[in-house]
Write a structure and sequence with these properties.
The complex is a heterodimer of chains A (821) and B (249). Chain A is of the alpha+beta class. Helices cover 30% and strands 21% of the residues of chain A. In chain A, strands 3, 5, 11, 20, 22, 23, 25 and 26 form an eight-stranded mixed sheet that branches.
């Protein structure tokens, strides 16, 4: 029986292209670029609705318009020294590329694929002149509410550059299509002529592949080197005295017990456990045993697996034994006196256990590894923080973890690291194990079951998300771009195999990636360029799938157009990633200088090359008006700030996050959002699934915005602060917090009580909505003047002056001085 | 020792299920490691054994890739006309396959592994697979659609490899399998059967052209010899006339 082409749809995005079909077909060659508004694509005068008129009429109308058009909103000159209210009312929206409306409508969503410059400069020299970084930010495995899925026996790709067919290719006629990346003309295969959506023949341009910039293919067997692997999970737990003391074992075992049926997988899912202190303990969970059997290997110099075939067992068949083990595990080590911990050998054992199949290793570690290979010594000296000008020990102390991670990557094993500790753990060295094996790093400073209940809640919630979120195994990702552009540096957690193939043993929906690009050949004849990211992975159900994202951007040849298309958030995130690399390879002060210079250079370039009339003050285009603010925020961010208060592990963790978190979460880390919440109203509120969510406006991060008679909520990504003013409205205290007066606010309050009042409901709806926006769980701290956390709340007030850093106004003056030099 | 088990659709060679091969290799290679009997510490085995094992493992891993691609090629070659039960020798290994109701069941084992047992194993898989998924086979289009069948494969395999169970099975299955009738061929030959035919074809056409040439050559030679005979006769007659004319007259 011949294989049929079956097309299944999650929910097809149907673009109605009945009448403007011709316009679409020629659309690719018609792209005209013009500076115009970032936010008002629909109202844009340059692309009137009767666009499908044809090139002959289009061009004169365009030239006429561009002559009479005024300066677009993005290029409106802002004098930063005078403009005080920079923040927009709502969230900062990404700029829209200047593409014809029908192309832009199907372009990849900016949350998934984003470029620092939405208008690509024609030449490298033009890019150098603009002094803005060129790069892409990706969130390729993001949870999507709708995703078209295509099952087809042949996947149509360009014969020379292997690009997947996408909405931005050109159909020369019914039988041939031109690749938008390498411009080769390819044949349309017979099978592609039939459109299963409309059940019609001869309309290849209406196939879902050509209608959606983001879609997923079910891969045929050519995309498999071996049969798809099952979901395999290995839990590696530190059970030394220190670890048992923190009480984290209870939380991990409890979470696993609760979510054991929600682990992604099918009937083949396998699970295994290893615990370690100065020896390595394995657990035989073979079907038929009455209880789990513990096997201890004390020779940590040359590790081996005692019973290789019964340590990793089928979860469905041995579920009872696994549950037994999880129930007894926290008590088993209750009286342990062992303080040493042999993390290196435990990781080696984990690698051996999984190397046959591949899978995910989750390591829980609470102290500096002290035994066997990979043992580390404390490198942090608190006294040095103050004296030394530069931060040391940002690079790993040993290459053991990197080497092991590369071995893991070769066998499709990813290692996720959970670090729960109160002391220095040398995350800079340990983090390598996750970084090169495409894992993720979680860090809970001063974790303790009794002393830090907020930390425990946060760990619980994160763990739940971690265990139940989607996962892709044995994945690879390749990013292609149009001829003339080249990708040279990658940021994120992965291993680069063969120049541009990212090897991702695991891929999770919370991982972000960034790449830097350069322009190798002039893009003179091109109106637009395209970028395509293809992620090939095995789903937890054993399906091999390919997720393809394609983005199309216009090419421009004037500096003002480049500035008009600048995406300030993407630029900031890319600069942050670059600065992390710089502080490891060179030094932190070097990285700080580089960031400051980036803002100075681009504003200088704008002033000298784009502005025709010179005015006094610090001038910036409206689209870059937040740039100096974001740079200052980065300089004050945990990763890059100076001063004595930042612990080395905190700093390294912040750097990890900047590198592998997707843009939306990184932006909150860099520039928290401040809201006034004591006077929430339903005015302008959002309606999400029958809940009303108030939308207060974002305040600037300055103490002058705080008032003693109010309550303010600061959303800093992984943590939310609720600051209560001394003379706070008593109504708010009683109706929302359920407290009689200000003095009754406890010093460590992490919950909003569920009161049956309108104010309480509004506040809780708002906080809940903020939390839903991200995959991790931000803790809520209610703070007042005496709270110990007040300092970290005030540290986020980045517009204010601190002992070691400039205020926003001073920073602007500094930049202005450099710009007008 | 069973190294690789694959199930595919006969019509187009689409793989339906497979057992992750490395597991077996691990079992096999670790069989000399002391087994745990309960709580307690272990003696470490002598490190040289492990060094050798690692080396063996690497070699097998490489070979397995090759065997796997051979298996995939084989799936594409097999069709309705192929013998339904066959053993194919491939060096020190053997492929055994069974075709039943449009599905191919293939196993790769060491050449020394009892053939009887291999086919009993395949029959077992066949019965269960047909029971579970038989109806859905013609309609699927995704490779490895029934990958979850792997769990059953692994369990069945264990019972066949275990020497104690093997003895039991052996006694049960003696009548079921008449192994002698199963065709034996070489994997290379099967995979290259196509090529051999085309070679034969070209040889035959070569032969015919050569014989044509021979025929023309022979004709030419014949005429030449006729001319030679005529010429010789002519010379004789002239000599005779001259002789008669000068000596007799």
């Amino acid at each position: 029986m011949p294989t049929e082409s079956l097309i299944g749809y999650g929910a097809p995005v149907c673009v109605d292209s009945g009448s403007d079909q011709d316009g679409y077909l020629q659309g690719c060659t018609q792209v005209k670029c013009c500076p115009r508004s970032l936010y008002s694509l629909v109202n844009c005068p340059n692309f009137p609705p009767q666009l499908s008129a044809g090139p002959a009429q289009l061009s004169p109308s365009l030239s006429g318009l561009s002559l009479q058009s005024q300066t677009p909103e993005a290029l409106r000159v802002v004098n930063l020294l005078q403009e005080r209210n920079l923040l927009p009312l709502g969230p900062v929206t990404p700029p829209t590329p200047c593409l014809p409306q029908d192309l832009q409508k199907i372009n990849c969503h900016p949350e998934v694929f984003r470029s620092t410059l939405t208008s690509i400069p024609q030449t490298q020299s033009l890019l150098n002149k603009a002094k803005l970084p060129l790069g892409l930010l990706l969130h390729p495995f993001k949870d999507l509410s709708q995703l078209p899925v295509v099952t087809s026996s042949t996947i149509v790709r360009c014969r020379s550059c292997r690009t997947y067919i996408n909405p931005f290719v050109t159909f020369l006629d019914q039988r041939r299509w031109k690749c938008n990346l390498c411009y080769r003309v390819n044949d349309v295969p017979e099978e592609f002529m039939y459109n299963p959506v409309s059940r019609s023949y001869g309309e290849p341009h209406k196939r879902p592949e050509v209608q959606n910039a983001t879609l997923e293919f079910i891969a045929p067997s050519e995309y498999m080197l071996r049969p798809p692997q099952p979901a395999v999970y290995l839990i590696v737990l530190d059970v030394s005295h220190n670890a048992v003391e923190t009480g984290y074992l209870d939380v991990v075992c409890q979470s696993l017990l609760e979510n054991i049926n929600a682990l992604p997988g099918d009937s083949r899912t396998k699970i295994g456990f290893i615990t370690f202190d100065s020896t390595i303990h394995f657990y035989n969970l073979q079907e038929g045993l009455s209880q789990p059997q513990m096997l201890i290997v004390s020779d940590i110099e040359d590790i081996f697996l005692p019973t290789p075939d019964s340590l990793l067992v089928n979860l469905n068949e041995c579920k009872e034994l696994v549950q037994d083990l999880l129930r007894s595990l926290p008590q088993m080590f209750g009286k342990t006196m062992e303080t040493q911990c042999a993390l290196g050998p435990a990781l080696q054992a984990a690698f051996k256990l999984l190397s046959a199949t591949g899978g995910r290793v989750s390591v829980f570690q609470t102290q500096l590894p002290s035994l066997g290979v990979g043992a580390l010594k404390s490198r942090e000296d608190p006294n040095q923080r103050a004296s030394a000008k530069d931060i040391q020990h940002l690079s790993p102390a040993t290459d053991f973890y990197k080497k092991l991670a590369l071995d893991c990557s070769g066998q499709q094993v990813a290692v996720d690291l959970f670090l729960l500790s109160s002391q220095y753990c040398d995350l800079a060295s340990l983090g390598c194990i996750s970084r090169y094996s495409a894992g993720s790093v979680y860090y809970y400073p001063s974790y303790h079951q009794q002393h830090n209940p907020a930390g425990v809640e946060c760990f619980q919630k994160d763990l739940k998300r971690y265990l139940t979120r989607k996962i892709g195994f044995e994945a690879v990702m390749r990013i292609r771009c149009s001829k003339g552009l080249s990708i040279h540096t990658f940021h994120g957690n992965f291993f680069v195999r063969s120049t541009d193939l990212l090897s991702l043993p695991n891929v999770n929906p919370d991982a972000g990636f960034a790449v830097q690009m350069s322009i190798e050949e002039n893009l003179v004849d091109m109106q637009s360029v395209s970028f395509q990211a293809a992620l090939l992975y095995t789903s937890s159900k054993g399906e091999r799938r390919i997720r393809v994202h394609t983005m199309c951007l216009p090419v421009v040849n004037s500096l003002s157009d480049i500035f008009a298309g600048a995406d300030v958030q993407a630029i900031t995130c890319l600069l942050a990633s670059m600065a992390v690399d710089r502080s490891v390879t060179a030094s932190l002060s070097d990285a700080r200088d580089a960031m400051t210079n980036a803002s100075i250079d681009s504003l200088t370039s704008f002033r000298t090359s784009v502005l025709t009339i010179q005015q006094p003050g610090l001038l910036a285009p409206a689209c870059l008006r937040l740039f100096p603010l974001y740079i200052l925020a980065l300089l004050k961010q945990k990763a890059f700030r100076t001063g004595t208060s930042t612990r080395l592990d905190d700093r390294v963790f912040a750097m990890c996050q900047l590198k592998y978190q997707p843009l939306a979460y990184v932006m909150l880390m860099i520039h928290p959002a401040l809201y006034r919440v004591d006077d929430l109203t339903d005015e302008g509120a959002l309606n999400v699934s029958e809940r009303t969510i108030p939308q207060p406006r974002v305040q600037q991060l300055s103490v002058e915005k705080l008032s003693r008679d109010g309550a303010f909520l600061m959303d800093a990504g992984s943590v939310i602060y609720l600051w209560i003013g001394r003379n706070c409205n008593p109504n708010f205290l009683t109706q929302v917090l359920g407290l009689p007066n200000y003095a009754a606010v406890p010093l460590n309050m992490n919950m909003l009580p569920e009161l049956d009042t309108a104010e309480s409901q509004r506040t809780r709806a708002f906080v809940g909505w903020l939390r839903e926006q991200r995959p991790f769980f931000p803790i809520l701290h209610v703070i007042r003047d005496e709270s110990p956390l007040k300092a970290s709340f005030l540290q986020n007030m980045i517009e204010d002056r601190t002992e070691s850093a400039l205020s926003y106004y001073e920073f602007l003056l500094h930049i202005q001085q450099q710009v007008s030099k | 020792m069973v190294l690789l088990t694959m199930i595919a659709r006969l019509a187009d060679g689409l793989p339906l299920a497979a057992s992750m091969q490395e597991d077996e290799q691990e079992d096999f290679l670790n069989s000399n490691v002391p087994r745990a009997t309960g709580h307690g510490h272990f003696e470490t085995p002598v490190s040289t054994t492990r060094g050798r094992r690692r080396c063996l493992q690497a070699k097998l891993g490489r070979d397995l890739q090759q065997y796997q691609s051979q298996a995939k090629q084989l799936f594409r070659k097999l069709n309705d006309q192929s013998p339904t039960r066959c053993t194919l020798e491939a060096g020190s290994m053997s492929f055994h396959y069974v075709i039943e109701k449009g599905v191919v069941y293939l196993v790769l084992s060491e050449a020394s592994f009892p053939k009887k047992l291999a086919f009993a194993y395949l029959e077992d898989l066949q019965a269960e697979f047909h029971e579970q998924h038989g109806k859905k086979v013609p309609t699927v289009s995704r490779p490895y659609s029934f990958i979850e069948f792997d769990t059953y494969i692994q369990k069945t395999k264990k019972s066949y490899i275990d020497s104690r169970a093997r003895r039991n099975l052996g006694s049960i299955n003696t009548e079921l399998q008449d192994v002698q009738r199963i065709m034996v061929a070489n994997i290379e030959e099967v995979l290259q059967r196509g090529e051999a035919l085309s070679a034969l074809d070209s040889k035959a056409s070569n032969l015919s052209s050569l014989s044509k040439k021979y025929r023309s050559d022979a004709k030419y030679l014949n005429t030449r010899s006729t001319y030679a005979k005529l010429a010789a006769g002519g010379v004789f007659f002239i000599m005779l006339i001259v002789y008669v004319r000068f000596w007799w007259l």
